[in-house]
Amino acid sequence: MESNSNDNYVLVLEDRTEVKNEKEAGKLSVISGIDDKGGLKTTEAIAANQAAFLKFNSKDGLLKNFMTNFLKQFNNPTHFGLYKVLADNVEQGVDNLRTMLQSREKPENKQQLAEIGVPFEDYLPQQKNATAIDESKVDWKQLAALGLSRERLEQSGELDKMLNWQKSNLLTIAVPIGDTTIYTEARLAFRTDDNDNVGLAIHPLRKEPQLDFPYMGYKFSPEEKEQLLATGNLGKTIEVTPKNAEPFSAYVSIDPQTNEIIALRADRVNIPKEIKGVTLSDAQYKDLVEGKAVKVEGMTAKSGKIFNATLQVNAEKKGIEFIFDNNRGFKERQQQTQQQGAPHKLCGLELSDKQREALDSGRTLYLKNMVDKQGQPFNAYVRMDKEQNRPRFYKWNPDKKQETGKEKVVAVAEEHKTQVAVNNHGKTNEATKDVKEPLKTGQTQPTAEQKQQQNENKQKKSRGRKM
């Protein structure tokens, strides 16, 4: 459905409760509202019923409210389908929808239905997933010794990963050494010992992969080092021998976040013959098992969209990796991965490890002496936008409710309001409206020289108005 954010659309309900076979399309009708008892009201999809249609716009929150009520009424929404159709072209839109539904198995129809469909799971209540590790068995004091708390890990979203045997993303940890404390970055993971006690595994950030030293008894050749640095994966299996353990065949990769070399037992990797709807050829399957990169086309995403990707076993991911931009080398992809999270420098201000950790954990900081585009210092509240992976600036503390009517402006602290308005937005207050140059920090009145220049400008304007 081609539309823009200003288009109104209606929801077309496909009722499949009486459908006798999968290829048959269900009864289609346009949603007109919800009755007093919370029941769904529908009407025939004809232009004459335009006034009765319940219309939505991508900019408003009406759809979310409607879906909440809809899912309360229908305990089994799988018997129904909801699709967006432009309000000003309902009859043609519903005819096209019916045609697609009658051949929904075709890839082109499957993709388009996914694009205009309204997924129920997006509006179902979010339930906290059960974790593989019992939190009561975690030694929280061990984490506290590294400057981390349960609350901070939970706020950053890393705790859930760790409680499911996964590594966290890079975290700043404090390592006490004598009378000093060293701050460094590392990935953390929970692991068990021989007595089933839950301990903490620390994977520190390394400047570069240590490929010149033997790894589990295996020495990499120059060609193998080049392959690992170029792609992040060795591209084959090798035999490694852990300390005090039997040798085993393994896939080897580099952790893009820490530069640590990772080995994965080949006998623990399950490689399916069919991946995302595509059955691999014998040659593709053989190459993938051997650790080689394999290009696979025509796979189907959960959304129904068809895509192509290069597949390869990745030891760090403990399974098959989907590489979508094969033209970019491992180093470029690694740099993008490591740049996630709070920046090291913000508007000219060097952030400490504690400040970056606080921002990454979702906290708001009040930062002073940052520098704007015109080179003038300013202060602001800062919080990370997790969805866009970028810092946001606020005049007021966004964690506190503001007075009714006050807009939460993405701006700076009050004492710099005039200065930044001139420097970045070309605006100012009445007293400084004729001042053309940037104002100094906290300046709200013109200097003597600026005042003189204002008077001269007024005189010139006055002479220019005389007949």
The percent range for strand residues is: 25-35%
In the predicted model, the low-confidence regions spanning at least 5 consecutive residues are 402-428, 438-442
Q: What is the typical, i.e. mean, pLDDT?
A: 79
Number of helices: 12
Count of strand segments: 21
**Residues in helix, %:** 10-25%
Structural class: alpha+beta
Radius of gyration: 30 Å
Describe this protein with a few key phrases.
24% helix; alpha+beta; extended; 467 residues; three-stranded antiparallel beta sheet
Structure description:
- The protein has twelve helices and 21 strands.
- The protein has helices spanning 62-73, 90-102, 107-116, 140-144, 150-156, 158-162, 222-231, 282-289, 330-338, 353-360, 417-425, 448-465, and strands at residues 8-15, 27-34, 40-43, 55-57, 80-86, 171-177, 180-192, 198-204, 233-240, 248-254, 261-265, 274-275, 278-279, 294-300, 306-314, 319-323, 345-346, 349-350, 365-371, 377-385, 390-394.
- Strands 1, 2, 3, 4 and 5 form a five-stranded antiparallel beta sheet that branches. The protein has a three-stranded antiparallel beta sheet with strand order 6-7-8. It has a three-stranded antiparallel beta sheet with strand order 9-10-11, with helices on one face.
- The termini are far apart.
- With 467 residues, it is an alpha+beta fold.
- The longest helix is centred in the C-terminal third of the chain and has 18 residues, at 448-465.
- Strand 9 (233-240) and strand 10 form a beta hairpin.
